[in-house]
Amino acid sequence: xxxxxxxxxxxxxxxxxxxxxxxxxxxxxxxxxxxxxxxxxxxxxxxxxxxxxxxxxxxxxxxxxxxxxxxxxxxxxxxxxxxxxxxxxxxxxxxxxxxxxxxxxxxxxxxxxxxxx
Amino acid sequence: xxxxxxxxxxxxxxxxxxxxxxxxxxxxxxxxxxxxxxxxxxxxxxxxxxxxxxxxxxxxxxxxxxxxxxxxxxxxxxxxxxxxxxxxxxxxxxxxxxxxxxxxxxxxxxxxxx
Lengths: 117, 114
Hints:
The structure holds two protein chains of two kinds.
Chain A: E1 4-7, E2 10-13, E3 19-25, E4 32-38, E5 44-51, E6 57-58, E7 67-73, E8 76-81, E9 90-100, E10 103-108, E11 112-116
Parallel strand pairs in A: 2-11
Antiparallel strand pairs in A: 1-3, 3-8, 4-5, 4-9, 5-6, 7-8, 9-10, 9-11
Chain B: E1 10-14, E2 19-24, E3 30-38, E4 45-51, E5 56-58, E6 62-67, E7 72-77, E8 86-96, E9 99-104, E10 108-113
Parallel strand pairs in B: 1-10
Antiparallel strand pairs in B: 2-7, 3-4, 3-8, 5-6, 6-7, 8-9, 8-10
């Protein structure tokens, strides 16, 4: 199956610093990628849709200036958590959409556990 | 909007039994549904999907049933094994003019007892 690589798998940072998470589609091109956040014992919440070559679309309640998304190529989207605070500690997951044979599927990365001290 | 729960619904079964996990979805415009399995600390893993023009689809040991009348989706796992223990999420794909979006249900924690 298709592979989506997410890096890093975990990160610990101090409050006030910025953290960048990368999401790469390794064997297909993805014009659209998605970023989710998941708190313990809860479901995945869609944060934003990342579109290659254009601005990301953010879900209601998600601060676009805090969660910067860049999708500069067809295989890479990045999420930067700026001025991170302890309440930003969460599991962040990306997914990439693949179109093939008039069918579309989503493939997920393995997630990034962010802990802000 | 999203519902935020403090804990996941749980289902506990004996090894070898069949499991049924249920999900209610909200949007009648959803055209595609997927079941995912998520193990602790990992991303979701695709299990099976179904389009809105179908009411049943079978895979290896898994069956998905779709009832559009009551907006209900179920996942049946035959001969459940300890390796099936995980959290299971249903997801619905909603097509909008700006593109399609996948939103997840609350999830169910499946525990398989040996």
